[in-house]
């Protein structure tokens, strides 16, 4: 157990982005690359006062190529840095929300995890020629806040040594159970325990939702569903929930065996990449209905990303935009026991580029709404506000992003399965209402199912359209320009930033710019300020155009263009047609073609 000190040198570019450090796998496999980052993290958390000697370190990943090797290295380094208890997910697998749940739920107080390393590059492709990633989550189960990731980054720029126990045995990750290792003098003992990847998370989900009600829905003859884990880490969780707990056939789970390269695909749940599922649901990649002939289309479809924190929700020939999904779930929160038992929702939050659909629900139902920068770490402070912010409590809390992320304060990460179970709860609720043909008890619900005939299923489409009818529709799309030249993209952003004030008041197309700025956010709980979070053009009629550079791209730059337009009455248009005019304005305002050489996006979501 004797630590060895290894000499190293700073490696440039180890700054964590929106969600950890992501680079090409080969870069991560270069000597000292992983080690430098891990040691810099240990140095940062020790300086912050984390007691790593008493508590437990949790490690898990999304199963991508290099996952297991990285875990063995982190174990050896953790031991050298003084950690005495380590939990590792079986086979090295643990979804991002499951890590969060396990930090928060597992073990008696004195054993609880002080933090976790998550080996993931989320939705980025995996494999020797693709991406790898690592991030650190804190004792609340949430991603390290900016203040900590900044320290980690600073440490990486001045690191000259790291500690490792090269003799520490490699741990067999395939079987659950503890391995105890004693120092030669018998004075010190380290325990590495391989734990179930799914247990803590699934137990938590069972305490949140009414599984009997969901089973009632799934068992109906006229209801069918399919869940696509896209060869990512969520497969085993989906099987536990849908097959073991809810008694459904295995066929419900598609692509549910994790693969280290996600089968060569892009494990990102959207209309472009979840192609197989999208077709099964009777849609094309633009979300338009396709003719499936005699083939019956499923009632419900959902997909996850590589690390299981994202979700896409589909109904029969119907795509639910993530921003709408957030708004619908918030409006139905009280049908979920977790929220009902706590007296209903107290707060909602969305990232700035996410559409304002949820704001309308918050205003209607009277809960606080927050607009935060992109990335999950900003939500955590709001959820933990009671502890930090003079007793003001925003929980229970629901939050989400336009990038297919939804969640609540049951954990401190977005949670793909949670969102799916939330939707199934809503469907179960509406359909049991129809069955008993009783009128809605909760008149605040958007959808009035009392006029449906008793044997027809209330669908996902019915629910979303009911929502639009009540609140109006926030037409929304995001255009991604992936793998573009960084210098050009940065120049374009600088230009828009400089001319923001000049743009205010300008007329363009049928729009008038009420305000143009670069979004900055002052955390209401701890007062920290995040600047340069996206250029916004806020139009007088409430429409918005937003530009950001991605903070998760492994290499090169990705420009994201977000377009939103609100319509109170005209809710039945095709989204791309409704947004056509505003898209043109956005391309003109940014002069994107001059800066990056194209105005053709790689992906539209
Ligand atoms: C993207 C999304 C953001 C999300 C982040 C992490 O970040 O836009 O909403 O929180 O990915 O998601 P960016 O900086 O590339 O726009 V995950 O599922 O990749 O951890
Ligand atoms: Co993810």
From TrEMBL:
Keywords: Isomerase, Magnesium, Metal-binding, Phosphoprotein. GO terms for molecular function: magnesium ion binding; phosphoglucomutase activity. It comes from the Eukaryota. Residues 14-161, 216-314, 327-438 form the Alpha-D-phosphohexomutase alpha/beta/alpha domain. It is an enzyme of class 5 (isomerase). Coiled coil: none annotated. One of its GO terms (cellular component) is cytosol. It catalyses: alpha-D-glucose 1-phosphate = alpha-D-glucose 6-phosphate. GO terms for biological process: carbohydrate metabolic process. Its cofactor is Mg(2+). Transmembrane segments: none annotated. Its EC number is 5.4.2.2. Belongs to the phosphohexose mutase family. This is phosphoglucomutase (alpha-D-glucose-1,6-bisphosphate-dependent). It comes from Cylindrotheca closterium. The lineage of its organism: Eukaryota, Sar, Stramenopiles, Ochrophyta, Bacillariophyta.
């Amino acid at each position: 157990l004797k630590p060895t000190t290894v000499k190293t040198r700073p490696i440039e570019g180890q700054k964590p982005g929106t969600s950890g450090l992501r680079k090409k796998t080969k870069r991560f496999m270069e000597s000292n690359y992983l080690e430098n980052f891990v040691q810099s993290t240990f140095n940062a958390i020790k300086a912050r006062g984390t007691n790593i000697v008493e508590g437990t370190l949790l490690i898990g990943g999304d199963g991508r190529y290099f996952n297991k090797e990285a875990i063995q290295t982190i174990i050896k380094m953790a031991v050298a840095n003084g950690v005495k208890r380590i939990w590792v997910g079986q086979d090295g697998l643990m979804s991002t929300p499951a890590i969060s749940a396990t930090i928060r739920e597992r073990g008696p107080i004195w054993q609880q995890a002080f933090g976790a390393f998550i080996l993931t590059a989320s939705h980025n492709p995996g494999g020797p020629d693709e991406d790898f990633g690592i991030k650190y989550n804190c004792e609340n189960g949430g991603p390290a806040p900016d203040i900590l990731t900044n320290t980690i980054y600073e440490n990486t720029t001045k690191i000259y040594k790291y500690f490792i126990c090269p003799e520490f045995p490699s741990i067999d990750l395939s079987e659950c159970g503890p391995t105890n290792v004693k120092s030669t003098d018998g004075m010190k003992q380290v325990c590495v325990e391989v734990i179930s990847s799914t247990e803590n998370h699934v137990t938590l989900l069972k305490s949140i939702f009414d599984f009997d009600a969901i089973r009632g829905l799934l068992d109906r003859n006229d209801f069918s569903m399919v869940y696509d884990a896209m060869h990512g880490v969520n497969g085993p969780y989906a099987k536990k929930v849908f097959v073991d707990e809810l008694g459904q056939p295995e066929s419900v789970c598609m692509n549910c065996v994790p693969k280290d390269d996600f089968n060569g695909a892009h494990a990102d749940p959207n209309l472009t990449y979840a192609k197989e599922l999208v077709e099964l649901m009777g849609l094309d990649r633009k979300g338009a209905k396709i003719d499936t002939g005699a083939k019956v289309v499923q009632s419900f479809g959902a997909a996850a990303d590589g690390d299981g924190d994202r979700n896409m929700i589909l109904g029969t020939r119907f795509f639910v935009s993530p921003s709408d999904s957030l708004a619908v779930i918030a409006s139905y929160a009280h049908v979920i026991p977790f929220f009902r038992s706590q007296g209903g929702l107290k707060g909602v939050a969305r990232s700035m580029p996410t559409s304002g659909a949820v704001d309308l629900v918050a205003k209607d139902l009277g809960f606080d709404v927050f607009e935060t920068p992109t990335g999950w770490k900003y939500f955590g402070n709001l959820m933990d506000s009671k502890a930090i912010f003079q007793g003001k409590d925003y929980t229970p809390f629901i939050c989400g992003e336009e990038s297919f992320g939804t969640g609540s304060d049951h954990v401190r990460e977005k949670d793909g399965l949670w969102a799916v179970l939330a939707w199934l709860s809503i469907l179960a609720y509406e359909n049991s209402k129809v069955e008993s043909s009783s009128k809605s008890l909760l008149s605040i619900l958007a959808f009035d199912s009392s006029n449906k005939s008793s044997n027809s299923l209330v669908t996902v489409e019915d629910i979303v359209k009911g929502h639009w009818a009540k609140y109006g529709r926030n037409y929304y799309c995001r255009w991604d320009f992936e793998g573009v030249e960084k210098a050009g993209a940065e120049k374009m952003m600088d230009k828009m930033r400089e001319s923001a004030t000049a743009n205010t008041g300008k007329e363009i197309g049928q729009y008038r710019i009420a305000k143009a700025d670069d979004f900055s956010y002052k955390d209401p709980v701890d007062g920290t300020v995040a600047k340069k979070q996206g250029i916004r053009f806020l139009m007088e009629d409430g429409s918005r155009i937003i530009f950001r550079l991605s903070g998760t791209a492994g290499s090169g730059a990705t420009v994201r263009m977000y377009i939103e337009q609100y319509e109170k009455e005209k809710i039945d248009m095709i989204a791309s047609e409704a947004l056509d005019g505003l898209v043109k304005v956005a391309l003109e305002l940014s002069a994107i073609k001059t800066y990056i050489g194209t105005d053709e996006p790689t992906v539209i979501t």
